[in-house]
């Protein structure tokens, strides 16, 4: 829980600090850049408007138009325009101080600063766009006790120049060459507004502005941090829950960004992880059952081998020692031969059965006509069928399957041989097919005594025979591995099967899918 709060607190602190630093930097840039930027903007604007004025002067036809243009420019731009003729003499009635005159009394006109600007003498013929060298051309400043002494011709008596009562006003000044018969050049002077006061006001406001900005930054940073860390905290909480491997756990972040994509990836990874764990569990259970089956099989095999070996050993010892009935060596040598044949067959069946418990066998699937295999096995059992005078009933409907030929031949061989072996003399064997909507059924039914239901499943256990306890020579009845091998084969082919009692006796059913398919081991 501390970690979840930690990431929220860190994000909140970092965001607040970032916003505060940005505000401070913005104030600093504004404070230090404002004067230079103001001068740059003022100069650029004045230059542009001065070019427009020159264009208007060049196109003026009368002096009234000139006077109007210069007066409008002076008023709109807070600038003074001094007009000079080709002899570099001031044209007073076309200069803005004289165009915008006003009357003042002698008492109010004392100590007025008069600034006369003259054009640069270094004008050349190469000057273009009406431009002269753009630099200050102030020639001198004079403090006059009586402004009437500088009254020029054409200026009415009682009027003086309109000038600023400042000894050190900052200004921008430029001279422009014009093409007009009345004037040859103009000098424009624009006074800069003092910004020191604005800077002082800004400094006094900074603490209050910073406080407001800080409050805004804290509120904004809180909501931003909470919104940003909410999906991350959810991802962390969900990942912690996933450690328990419980089902139905998922990240619920439905956004069209990297966090939403990460949520989907975590969900997919968790589903795949659970599936892999379940597969591993099933494989472990399967391996455990396989190991148990192998152990049980080896115990049963050892027991089955021990019985005939003990019998053979006893008969041989009796014949060597000439004990009782064992003196008839010819008879008991034949008995030993039968036991050895049974042992050979038993060992062969054990080896065959042991291969079924391995996963190394690779199925070779192909299309097989099952009736061909059935007829082949009936031919192999022909002698026993004739000896017991068994009656065969075959219903040869089309029965083809996509299957491993070797395994299905071995399976049908065991089922048919058991049916022939355990059918009553003069009994019947029925082999037929039927079908449902999904499967075709191969049925092998023989006439025999019914088997108790509890014993039906035991028939598929290794070395199990029902008459073992009643028959001293069990080897005459088989090894007890036939149906065990059938069971393993059908499981390998993934084919369902069923053994059931009928009115006739016993019936074995095998179910084949109608659609051709490659049946994989289960």
TrEMBL record:
<keyword id="KW-0472">Membrane</keyword>
<dbReference type="InterPro" id="IPR003594">
    <property type="entry name" value="HATPase_dom"/>
</dbReference>
<dbReference type="InterPro" id="IPR036890">
    <property type="entry name" value="HATPase_C_sf"/>
</dbReference>
<keyword id="KW-0812">Transmembrane</keyword>
<keyword id="KW-0418">Kinase</keyword>
<dbReference type="InterPro" id="IPR003661">
    <property type="entry name" value="HisK_dim/P_dom"/>
</dbReference>
<dbReference type="InterPro" id="IPR036097">
    <property type="entry name" value="HisK_dim/P_sf"/>
</dbReference>
<feature type="domain" description="HAMP">
    <location>
        <begin position="226"/>
        <end position="278"/>
    </location>
</feature>
<keyword id="KW-0902">Two-component regulatory system</keyword>
<protein>
    <recommendedName>
        <fullName>histidine kinase</fullName>
        <ecNumber>2.7.13.3</ecNumber>
    </recommendedName>
</protein>
<dbReference type="GO" id="GO:0016036">
    <property type="term" value="P:cellular response to phosphate starvation"/>
</dbReference>
<feature type="domain" description="Histidine kinase">
    <location>
        <begin position="300"/>
        <end position="516"/>
    </location>
</feature>
<dbReference type="InterPro" id="IPR005467">
    <property type="entry name" value="His_kinase_dom"/>
</dbReference>
<keyword id="KW-0175">Coiled coil</keyword>
<feature type="transmembrane region" description="Helical">
    <location>
        <begin position="12"/>
        <end position="39"/>
    </location>
</feature>
<dbReference type="GO" id="GO:0000155">
    <property type="term" value="F:phosphorelay sensor kinase activity"/>
</dbReference>
<keyword id="KW-0597">Phosphoprotein</keyword>
<dbReference type="Pfam" id="PF00512">
    <property type="entry name" value="HisKA"/>
</dbReference>
<keyword id="KW-1133">Transmembrane helix</keyword>
<dbReference type="GO" id="GO:0005886">
    <property type="term" value="C:plasma membrane"/>
</dbReference>
<keyword id="KW-0808">Transferase</keyword>
<dbReference type="GO" id="GO:0004721">
    <property type="term" value="F:phosphoprotein phosphatase activity"/>
</dbReference>
<dbReference type="InterPro" id="IPR003660">
    <property type="entry name" value="HAMP_dom"/>
</dbReference>
<feature type="coiled-coil region">
    <location>
        <begin position="263"/>
        <end position="290"/>
    </location>
</feature>
<feature type="transmembrane region" description="Helical">
    <location>
        <begin position="205"/>
        <end position="224"/>
    </location>
</feature>
<dbReference type="InterPro" id="IPR050351">
    <property type="entry name" value="BphY/WalK/GraS-like"/>
</dbReference>
<dbReference type="Pfam" id="PF02518">
    <property type="entry name" value="HATPase_c"/>
</dbReference>
């Amino acid at each position: 829980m501390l970690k979840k709060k930690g990431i929220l607190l860190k994000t909140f602190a970092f965001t607040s600090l970032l916003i505060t630093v940005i505000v401070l930097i913005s104030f600093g840039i504004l404070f230090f850049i404002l004067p230079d930027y103001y001068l740059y903007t003022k100069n650029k604007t004045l230059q542009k408007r001065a070019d427009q004025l020159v264009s208007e002067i060049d196109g003026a036809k009368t002096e009234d138009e000139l006077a109007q243009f210069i007066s409008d420019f002076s008023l709109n731009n807070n600038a003074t325009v001094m007009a000079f003729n080709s002899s570099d003499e001031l044209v007073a009635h076309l200069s803005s101080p004289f165009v915008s005159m006003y009357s003042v009394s002698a008492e109010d006109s004392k100590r007025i600063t008069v600034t006369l600007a003259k054009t640069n003498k270094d004008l050349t013929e190469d000057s273009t766009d009406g431009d002269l060298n753009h630099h200050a051309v102030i020639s001198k400043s004079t403090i006059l006790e009586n402004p009437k002494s500088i009254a020029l011709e054409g200026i009415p008596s009682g009027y003086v120049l309109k000038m600023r009562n400042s000894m050190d006003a900052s200004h921008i000044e430029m001279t422009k060459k014009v093409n007009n018969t009345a004037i040859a050049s103009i000098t424009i002077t624009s006074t800069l507004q003092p910004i020191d006061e604005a800077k002082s006001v800004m400094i006094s406001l900074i603490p209050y502005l910073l406080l407001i900005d800080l409050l805004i930054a804290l509120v904004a940073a809180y909501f931003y941090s909470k919104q940003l860390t909410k999906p991350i905290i959810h991802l962390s909480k969900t990942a912690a829950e996933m450690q328990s491997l419980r089902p139905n756990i998922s990240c619920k972040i439905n956004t069209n960004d990297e966090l939403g994509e990460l949520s989907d990836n975590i969900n997919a990874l968790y589903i795949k992880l659970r599936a892999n764990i379940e597969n591993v569990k099933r494989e472990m259970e399967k391996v455990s059952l396989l190991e148990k089956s192998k152990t049980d099989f080896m115990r049963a095999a050892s027991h089955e081998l021990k019985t005939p070996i003990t019998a053979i050993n006893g008969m041989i010892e009796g014949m060597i020692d000439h004990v009782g009935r064992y003196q008839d060596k010819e008879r008991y040598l034949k008995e030993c031969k039968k036991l050895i044949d049974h042992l050979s067959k038993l060992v062969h069946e054990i080896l065959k059965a042991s291969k079924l418990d391995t996963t190394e066998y690779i199925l070779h699937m192909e299309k097989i006509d099952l009736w061909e295999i059935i007829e082949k096995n009936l031919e192999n059992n022909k002698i026993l069928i004739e000896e017991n005078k068994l009656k065969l009933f075959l219903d040869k409907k089309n029965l083809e399957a996509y299957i491993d030929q070797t395994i299905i031949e071995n399976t049908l061989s065991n089922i048919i041989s058991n049916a022939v072996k355990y059918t009553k003399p003069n009994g019947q064997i029925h082999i037929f097919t039927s079908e449902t909507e999904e499967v075709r059924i191969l049925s092998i039914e023989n006439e025999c005594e019914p088997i108790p239901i509890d014993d039906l499943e035991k028939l598929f256990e290794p070395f199990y025979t029902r008459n073992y306890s009643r028959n001293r020579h069990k080897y005459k009845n088989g090894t007890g591995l036939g149906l065990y091998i059938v069971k393993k084969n059908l499981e390998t082919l993934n084919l369902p099967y069923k053994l059931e009692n009928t009115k006739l006796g016993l019936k074995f059913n095998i179910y084949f899918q109608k659609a051709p398919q490659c049946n994989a081991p289960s």
